[in-house]
Design brief:
Elements lengths: L1 E5 L4 H12 L3 E5 L10 H10 L4 E4 L6 H6 L1 H22 L3 E7 L22 H20 L2 E7 L2 E2 L15 H10 L3 E5 L11 E2 L2 E2 H16 L5 E5 L5 E2 H12 L4 E5 L8 E2 L4 H7 L8 H18 L3
Parallel strand pairs: 1-2, 1-3, 3-4, 4-5, 5-10, 6-9, 7-12, 8-13
Antiparallel strand pairs: 8-11
Helix pairs in contact: 1-7, 2-4, 4-5, 6-8, 6-10, 8-10
Length: 312
Amino acid sequence: MKILVTGGSGYIGSITSDELVKAGFEPINYDLKNNQNIQDIKLLIRVLKQNKVTAVMHFAAYIEMGESMLKPEKYINNNFIGSQHLFHCMVNAGVKYIVFSSTAGVYGNPKKIPIKEDDQKQLANPYGLSKLMTEQLLNFYDRVYGLKSISLRYFNACGATKKKGENHQPESHLIPNVLKAILENREFTLFGNDYPTPDGTCIRDYIHVLDLAKAHILALRALIKGHKSDVFNVGSGKGYSNLEIIKISETITGKKLKLKICPRRPGDANQLIADVTKIKKDLGWESKFSDLETIIKSAWQWHKSQASLRGC
């Protein structure tokens, strides 16, 4: 069974593609790195039809919340309008199932913790807006065209496999930036220590990329078996502050981080912790690798291996 993976060269897309192969599927990578744009309607339709694609996993998106505050049009154009073009092409090619890479960013700065899927959305940045608009568009594509979808709202994907890890350019995520700063013996800038949390820093829910990949495959199988269109949180259900991440990283690496504190970034929420009751009940999903020690150890080993390959 062939699965088109948009953004299949990226961090989550490439690791999920590896897991798709292990699960008996045939992923087809569709990525900007291969000069394949999701807004290229003719190419998309041709790829979907020629490969007789059964379903799509849609990862392709810009992901930096801070940048979206400065360039909202970039995020709406690529993440929302680009997704609309993809859905149009799927309908044209007769592809009926899609698993969509969404985000906890749709909740903005929530009033309740942990966050349930039907909690109020209080958008804090255009990135979250682009993802929520795409989720809503999928609802209409289901009603009008019968396109079945499951949207997975990520809570801070992280960790690594032996061969693949997180290395965005530029990198905005906490764990890889902390580990690379430690590895390179350079200063790390932490944004904000005046949040209404116990130690003054943001609190986040971290999910290992392998557990996230498993959620995608379970969602795919559920859709193929007739599951209705739906939305699920994917996280560990536990929250850790930025300073806790730094302290655990120092313990695991055995090295001290050179830390600099700067003012908050616009658009950052105080706390984001998932209620994962729904995905456990409906899809039978359980996290296996998302304890913080496993996450940081796996990421540290991968970053060290990359430094070794570069001769650092």
